Amino acid sequence: MNEKENAARPATASKTMKGLSVGLIAIALALAGILVYVILAYQKQKTSMIEMERMLTQEKDSLANELKLMIHGYDTLKTNNDTLNAQLSREQDRIKKLLSINASNVQLIRTYRAEIGTMREIMKSYIVQIDSLNTRNKILVAENEQIRTQMSVVEQTNVELTKVREDLSEKVELASVIQAKDVVAAGLNNKRKEVDRADRMVTLRVCFTLRENPIAAPGRKTVFMRVLRPDGLVITDSPDNLFMAGDENLVFSAKRDVDYENLDIEMCIFLDNNGDFIPGASGIELYLEGALIGKSTFTLKGK
Fold first, then answer.
1. pLDDT tens per residue across span 224-268
2. CA 185 to CA 208: how far, in whole Å?
3. How far apart are alpha carbons 206 and 185 in whole angstroms?
4. For 272-296, what is each residue's pLDDT tens digit?
5. How far is CA 208 from CA 179, 180, 185, 195, 219, in A?
6. Which of 102, 234, 240, 303 is most buried, judging by how many CB atoms fall within 10 Å of its CB?
7. Where are the CATH 2.60.40.10 domain residues in the chain?
8. CATH class label, 180-300
């Protein structure tokens, strides 16, 4: 090998080393660039994930607050309708279950929002139903009040009509009573002559006129006579001689039947003296169909 060749080798080796160093530097720079890009990309992705998580949390909190407001809204929708109240309670339970879901990704949040949208529409429909029921209830309350007022008026009218009917019935009943007029009592001896001494009287004669009454029922009538002594004792020949006057049984002294034809009719009732008459003023009472129709008095002298 000549001196020329020996001198050229070190120069060639130096160039080779120089080129290798440049390549390594370039590779190092490229790797550094890639590393910087990867780091920046990771930080950007991490920032984006943090932002997304923050947004998801905000969205979830917002939806949770909306659900809580819906629960409160359902509390204000309570009605008197048991069926509707049961439906409202079921919807509240659905909301409470939805609140318990831990939504942590986009898909669950979307489901969350879709459910809320459905519940919001359901709640609107309940509001419409309740408004309709409340309106109908107001109408019914007004109608019931009107009906109660009308019923009160009708009841008052019925009371008044009943009173008028009772008054008319009483008046008709009173008007239909056949009265006796010109009631005259006289004591008779055994020769049918009038006497005024108790010891000479054999028979008591009481004559009167049953008055004309066009509204009274015609037909067979029984007139009961009561003779009350000065001491108040009713003269009778049997304690079983009773008749009804109003709500009580009264003892009668004598009675007589008559055919009444709504015209004046004169009649007499006789009562034998069996030693029951005493001196003084005695009373006469005449009854027909339970009503007192006439009265009078007569006086007997002693010996």
1. 999 999 999 999 999 999 999 988 999 999 999 999 999 999 999
2. 9
3. 4
4. 999 999 999 999 999 999 999 999 9
5. 10, 6, 9, 19, 19
6. 234
7. 180-300
8. mainly beta
Q: How many helices (H) and strands (E) does the chain have?
A: 3, 10
Helix, strand or coil for residue 156? helix
Describe the chain by its helix, strand, coil percentages, rounded to 5: 55, 25, 20
CA 203/CA 269 separation, integer angstroms: 10
* CA atoms of 262 and 217, how far apart (whole Å): 8
Distance CA(159)–CA(171), nearest Å, equals: 18
Q: For residue 223, is it left (φ>0), alpha (ψ between -120 and 50) or beta?
A: beta
pLDDT at 107 over 70: no
Which two tokens mark 233?
Answer: 């004792």
Closest CA to 81 of 129, 26, 18, 151: 129
Residues 190, 249: contact at Cβ < 8 Å? no
